[in-house]
Amino acid sequence: MVDNATLQEQDKRQLHPLQHPKTHADPLVIERGEGVYLYTADGRKILDGMAGLWNVNVGYGREELAQAAYDQMKKLAFTSNFTGMTNVPATQLAHKLSGYAYDGLKTTFFTSGGSESNDSAFKTARYYWKRVGKPDKFKIIARKQAYHGITMATTFATGIERYHKMFGPAMPGFVHVPAPYPYRFEGDVREGETIGLAAARLVEEAILREGPETVSAVIAEPVQGVGGVIVPPDDYFPRLRQICDQYEVLLIADEVITGFGRTGEMFALNRYGIEPDMLSFAKGITSGYQPLGGVQISEAIYDAIQTAPDTDVWMHGFTYSGHATACAVALKNVEIIEREKLVENGWQMGARLRLGLESLKEFAVVGEVRGIGLIYGVEIVSDREAKTADLALTARITKLCQDRGLRTRNVGSTLAFSPPLTINSDEVDEIVRILGSVLDSLGS
C-alpha cells in the first residue's frame, strides 16, 4: 500500500477544483467510506457532515450500487446516445423520471452533472423562445449568492463574485437580483410586504427594467447551498411562479442539491405546491456513485423541439448523455431511496439536527441556524447584534472540526451541514457534540 505522505506528494500534480496551494498543501487522502464515515490513508475516521459535495444521499459503501455498475459494465458500459441510438438503462430511467419530480415535467435530457444541466437549460430556454417566434428573449435572471455551476455560462449565472473575477469579461445576458435571504436581505421591504414578497418583487422589477420581451428565464435554487444555505420565506416561490407566468418567463428550478430528498421532499418546490418549467438535477440521482445529471422540460418545450423543421434541430448533446452505467446506477439508487424511506428519515433526522444546532446558540459566535430537511447552515459572526460575518473564524472552525473527526464546509461565514440521508440519531448527535466542543474550545 502506498503511504499517505507519498500520496500527498503525488497529488501535487492534480489540479483541484477551486485550486489554491494553501488549501491543497496537505489534503486529506480518503481511502474508503462506509455509511456516513470517511477513512483516510493515515487511519483517521471522519463523519462526513457534507455527504461528499451535498450528494452522497444513500451513504458510502453501498454494494448494491457497485453491483449495478458491475452488471451493466459487463453487458454494455457505454454507447452513444446521439441520433438513432439509445440504451436500456437510459430508456428505463427516462421512463422512471417522467412526471416523477413534477407532473408537468415528463421528458429528460441526461448530462454528466449539475453545471452541464444548467447550461443545457439556458440553451433550451433560448431555443424555445426562438421556436415560438420571440428570439429576443435570451436573458437569464439569477440571484446574488446563487451557485449554478462552472461552465462559462453557469459561472456568470452564479451570483458569487469570486467565481467571476479571474474569468471575465462576463458573458452578456445574465442579470442578478438580491437573494431571498431573511438574515441579511439586501433589498428594500415596503410597507405591508414580507421579505419573501419583497425579494420576488425585485425579480419583477428586473424583468420590467430589462424588458419582458428580452427575458428568457429565471433560475433559482430552492435552497441556495454554496451561497450560505439560504432558505427563502414560504411566500417567495409561489409569488415568483406568478411573476414568471405574468411576463412569459420560464422558471428553471436548480435542484442539483435539493433533488432526491435533501429537503424532506423528493423535490423541493413540491413544498410550495408549484412546478417549474424546467428542472436541473444531478448529485442525488446517483448519490455520487457515477457522474450523472439532467434537465427535465415542460410539455410546451418538448413540443417545440419535437415539431421543429430540419433547419431548426435542437443541436445540443454530450458524449456521455444517457451513459448506460451511470443510468443503471441511478435506477438502483432511486430504488434504495424509496425502499429505505430515506426522504422521511432525512426529515426526521433534520429535525433532530436543528434542535442540536439551535442549542449551540449559547455560543456568542453563532448568529443563526437555518435549514430544512437535512441541509443546515450555522452562521458564524463576530458580533451577533450587528450580524458581522466572520469568514476567518468560520474557516478556522471548519479546520478544527475536521481535526476532531467532523467534516463540514465553510461557505462564506456559514458552516454547512448536509450529511447522508441514512444518518441516524447517534450520528446526528455526534455532529452537534463535535461542533459544540470546538466552539467551547474557542472560549466564545
Any key phrases for this structure?
single chain, seven-stranded mixed beta sheet, Aspartate Aminotransferase, domain 1, alpha/beta, 2 domains, Aspartate Aminotransferase, domain 2, five-stranded antiparallel beta sheet, 444 residues, 13 helices
The parts where pLDDT drops under 50 for at least 5 residues are none
- In the CATH classification, which architecture of the largest domain applies? 3-Layer(aba) Sandwich
CATH class annotation of the largest domain: Alpha Beta
Share of helix, binned: 25-40%
Q: How would you sum up this structure, described in words?
A:
By secondary structure, the chain is of the alpha/beta class. It contains 13 helices and 16 strands. The strands form three sheets. A seven-stranded mixed beta sheet has the order 4-10-9-8-7-5-6, with helices on both faces. Strands 11, 12, 13, 15 and 16 form a five-stranded antiparallel beta sheet that branches. Strand 12 and strand 13 (388-389) form a beta hairpin. The longest helix has 18 residues, at 114-131. It is globular, with a radius of gyration of 22 Å.
Topology:
Blueprint: H1 4-10, E1 30-34, E2 37-40, E3 45-48, H2 51-54, H3 63-76, H4 88-97, E4 105-111, H5 114-131, E5 139-143, H6 152-157, E6 174-177, H7 195-210, E7 215-220, H8 236-246, E8 250-254, E9 278-281, E10 293-298, H9 299-306, H10 324-339, H11 342-358, E11 366-372, E12 375-383, E13 388-389, H12 391-403, E14 406-407, E15 409-411, E16 414-417, H13 425-441
Parallel strand pairs: 3-14, 5-6, 5-7, 7-8, 8-9
Antiparallel strand pairs: 1-2, 2-3, 4-10, 9-10, 11-12, 12-13, 12-16, 15-16
Helix pairs in contact: 3-10, 4-10, 7-8, 11-13
